[in-house]
Amino acid sequence: MTQSSHDHRHYAWPLIMCLCGVDYFSTLGYQPSIAFEGAGTLAPLATLVLVLVTLFGALPIYRHVAGETPDGVGSIGMIERMFRGWGAKLVVLVLIGFAATDFVITKTLSAADAAAHLISNPIYEEHVPAWLQGQMGTTMFLLVLLGAMFLKGYGEVVGLATVLVTTFLGLSFIVVVAGLVYLLGHPTLVPHWLGEIHAGRYHLEHAPLSGTGPWVAMGIAVLVFPKLALGLSGFETGVLHIHLVKGTDADPDDAAARIANTRRLLLVAAVIMSFFLVGSSLITGTDTLIPAEELRLEPVKGKAMDRALAYLAHGESPHPVCPLFGRVFGTLYDLSTILILWFAGASAMGGLLNMVPRYLPRYGMAPEWAGAYRPLVIAFTVINLLVTLAFRADVSAQGGAYATGVLVLMTSACVASFVHELRRRPEPHHGPALQAQRLGFGLITLVFVYTTIANIMERPDGIIIASIFIATVMAISFSSRSASPTTPRGCSGPTSSSRGPFACSCRTAPAAGRSPTRRRRSAASTGFRRTCRSCSSRCTTAT
After folding, report:
1. What is the DSSP letter of 246?
2. Cβ 202 vs Cβ 41: under 8 Å
3. Mind listing the pLDDT tens digit of every residue in the chain (543 residues)?
4. DSSP of 102-127, one letter per residue?
């Protein structure tokens, strides 16, 4: 899939929702386990807080970002446009480091959870060699397989993403609804859970508040919900794909229609995910259908850890939840979960390969370096393997780093939206509405700032990994700038001859005998000025 192919191809918004959903919806594979680890039997309450923040915080912010970035540059591009100078450039480089953290941990965490589903499947255990039955070996094999796929090329993904998301959500819907029906049909289960909460038995090692009662329980849920912030991923991906959304049948490039359809995409995705988050937490995190010890990581890893919904799908619950559940249905569910988690890694790899040529050359790195597609794939694969080794292929251990990357990007979107609204001049008779929106965006920004800081303080591994990426990005940027002081700056992307799915169609090399400045003047005088869809900057080409 080349960049040029994107220039004339648009898709209905439900298809793009599925493309973004391989990352967003696939978090259901590990979210229930991480929710129980972070909140214990208060997981449903903490998840409810998360859903409220999603619907009334993240959703309004990213609907605003979509309206301001119809070219698909997202919150980072929005910040870049709003501020000038080297200070702003350093901020963007820092955000790129956090985005790299998000994408890299998405790959390693998704591969680790896919491996957890694989090695827990009895059919897999019976037919694979012993070296592929361990968590570490299986995870690294999946990462290498993903890198090999990109070395061969990146084909059409929209149709495959639609099939994977539809299948996974359909099977997950059966599991969640069957679990909810069983809970409602056995009136002793929910009161047992509520009684445990009222008595202060939350199955938490270190509760942030002491005491019992509903207010204490709700206070703990509010304080620990940042640990569940993995469910907020996907919004940034949604606005980054806005340029692929079809406007109208008559004019697919209609910007107003594309913005409206992208906002519809974000709303529908948020509502669907909210249902699955709340429903899955009720059937997995209440010490009813799944015993609490099966969701423990220590001293012995429980059978439901990292695969709570699959645990039910295999019929491993002590309760006869559904006669359909068992080895066959569980294997089908495992297969759909493994594929969507593995494909979430593909989405993350695509994000990395798109981000590098979009931003880094503009900040001093040579376009030739950014266009080195195969070396980039190999380098990212090696980085993924190193991160997997560092975290021992543990899904829970990577949750903090993943949440840090996601939350920092979402906080940057909040700040960009809030500052943008502060700079707007109120139209006649719209002053009160603008003030109300400023107040709302300000409150949302405070919520996400708190959530980000709380997550970093609780699990500093995310900021450590992000700092490594930030330092690497800045070191390469400054060293490349020093080594190539005359690098043309007319474009941020590689040439159209660069191999890879995200090659830019602009050419930055100056014409023979001309300086870059003279060439840009010549191009501007002849009218050959256009917007580069890969780097979102104004590029020039000469005849």
Report:
1. -
2. yes
3. 334 334 457 889 998 888 888 888 988 988 898 889 888 999 999 999 999 999 999 999 999 999 988 887 888 888 888 877 777 778 887 888 888 888 888 888 888 888 888 888 888 777 777 777 788 888 898 888 888 877 665 555 677 888 999 999 999 999 999 999 999 999 899 998 998 898 888 888 777 888 788 889 899 988 888 878 776 767 887 888 888 888 888 888 888 999 999 999 999 999 999 999 999 999 999 999 999 889 887 777 888 888 899 999 999 999 999 999 999 999 999 999 998 988 887 777 776 776 766 776 666 555 455 556 677 778 788 888 888 888 888 887 787 778 888 888 889 999 989 988 888 877 766 678 888 888 999 999 999 998 888 888 877 877 887 788 778 767 766 666 666 554 444 444 444 333 333 334 343 434 344 444 444 433 333 333 333 433 444 343 332
4. HHHHHHHHHHHHHHHHHHT-HHHHHH
What is the Cα–Cα distance from 98 to 465, expressed in whole angstroms? 9
Neighbour tally for 247: CB within 10 Å: 19
Judge whether 388 and 108 are in contact, CB under 8 Å: yes
Instruction: Estimate the share of the chain in helix, then strand, then coil, as percent rounded to the nearest 5.
Output: 70, 0, 25
**Phi then psi dihedrals of residue 281, to 5 deg:** -70, -35
The residues, any chain, with a CB within 8 Å of residue 177's CB and separated by 6 or more, are 279
Name the nearest CA neighbour of 383 among 499, 306, 459, 473. Answer: 473
- Given a contact cutoff of 8 angstroms between Cβ atoms, the answer to whether 503 and 2 are in contact is yes
**How many Cβ atoms are within 10 Å of 299's Cβ, its own excluded?**
5
Contacts of 279 (CB under 8 A, 6+ apart): 176, 177, 179, 180
CA distances from 294 to 165, 175, 395 (A): 27, 18, 16
Distances (CA, A) of 416 to 68, 163, 410, 421, 441: 10, 35, 10, 9, 10
Name the CA dihedral angle for 402, 407, 412, 413, rounded to a multiple of 10 degrees. 110
Gap between the Cα atoms of 201 and 150, Å rounded: 48
Helix (H) or strand (E) run with residue 367 in it: helix 367-370
Contact 395, 33 (CB under 8 A): yes
Residue 251 CA to residue 396 CA, distance in Å, equals: 46
